[in-house]
Amino acid sequence: MNRVVGRSMALSAGRIGVALLLTAALAACMTPNATTPQVATLPPPPGAPAQVPPAPPMLPMPNPMYKVGEPYQIGGLWYYPKEQPDYDETGVASWYGTQFHGRLTANGEVFDRTAISAAHPTLPMPVNVRVTNLENGRSIVVRINDRGPFKKGRVIDLSERAADLLGYKQEGTARVRVTFIGRADLYGPGPAPPSQETPPEIAMAVPAAPVGKVTAGELPPVAGAQVAPPRGVANLPKPVAQANTAVPSGEIPDGRVIELPVPTATALYVQAGAFSSSANASTVAVRLYGLGARIIPGMKDGRPIFRVRIGPFQQVEDADATLAKVQALGHNDVQIVVESATS
Fold first, then answer.
1. What confidence tens digit (pLDDT) does each residue in 292-341 have?
2. Phi/psi of residue 274, each to 5°?
3. Cβ within 8 Å of residue 267, ≥6 positions away
4. Quick one: residue 93, left, alpha or beta (phi over 0 = left, psi -120 to 50 = alpha)?
5. Contact, 306 vs 273, CB < 8 A?
6. pLDDT tens digits, one per residue of 160-199
7. Bridge-partner residues for 128, per DSSP?
8. Helices H, strands E: what count in the chain?
9. Are 129 and 179 contacting, i.e. CB atoms less than 8 angstroms apart?
10. Cβ contacts of 100 within 8 Å, gap of 6 or more
């Protein structure tokens, strides 16, 4: 009896041992081996070609063109590009940079945030304008070659570099004056040469000058026909002398900063319109009376003008809020202007 019991106990102990061994083996299979050696990357054998880094993305191909453009709509507002040789406006400037760097501009150039350029909603492209920071007197010439800004209340959108030169990159906006200089060369910073002043469709329509010798004479009168008396022919005007194509100093977008006198203090006004008729100005002012609108009479190009304005404001945010209220009342021809605080 004791032998049987002892044998049974021995068999049980053996089975338990086998089970433990199997459990340990399974655990070893399921546990990651922390001592697995890492496979080192071997250097390329001598003479093997070096690995070439991936090529940078291709920049778009520029195709600059002179462009005025058709009316267009952005954010529910219509913009009407046109020739504006007498453009001289004040307002709030912003700037743009990395997000659009390397993209084509509205007239087919490549935007470079480090170049001295800008975007304008309605001026032709490319043209040169002078932008003066009315807060510090810094002034530079920039090249308009893009459309924008499309935030109502902004008069111009400068490149990152241009904003830095004018001293408002950190603040984001500045009170500026924008003055038209002239049409810019498609392939350079200076003014457009005479060859670019005439549209191609007009230039190509002019017949070529004859290359051979031309003779002229009078035809004999027709028998029996009445001959009209000769008429005097005025001499053709003398050819217009070509203007000097030398670029005036300080009139190209070369990054040259000059200091100009500016008012000691300025204020922002929301202008709801400018009218040649005082009656029309009064109609708008009455509609916006609750916002504090008033008529500011003045002169422009020797003629009286009546501006409907609300203000003054010192903070851009306050002017933006009032502009939004005026726009919500159906006045889309609204803008923010800068005037001397004493005017």
1. 999 999 998 899 999 999 999 999 999 999 999 999 999 988 999 999 98
2. -130, 125
3. 311, 312, 313, 314, 338, 339, 340, 341
4. beta
5. no
6. 999 999 999 999 999 999 999 999 999 988 899 887 765 5
7. 143, 182
8. 6, 13
9. yes
10. 111, 113
Q: How far apart are CA 314 and CA 311, in angstroms?
A: 9
Return the closest-CA partner of residue 269 out of 307, 327, 312: 312
pLDDT digits (tens, 9 = 90+) for 217-236: 666 777 776 666 666 555 55
Cβ count near 283 (within 10 Å): 13
Rounded distance, CA 4 to CA 9, Å?
9
Residue with tokens 């021995």: 10
Structure tokens at 158: 């400068």
State the chain's mean pLDDT as an integer.
82
Q: What domains can be seen in the chain, in order of their start residue?
A: 61-190+250-262 (2.40.40.10), 263-343 (3.30.70.1070)
Give the pLDDT confidence score for residue 210 in this predicted structure: 56
Which alpha helices (H) appear in 69-172, and where do they start and end? 160-166
**CA 271, 277, 282, 284 torsion: positive or negative?**
negative
* Token code pair at residue 327: 């726009």
Pairing of strands 266-275, 154-159: unpaired
Report the distance separating Cα 138 and Cα 259, nearest Å: 5
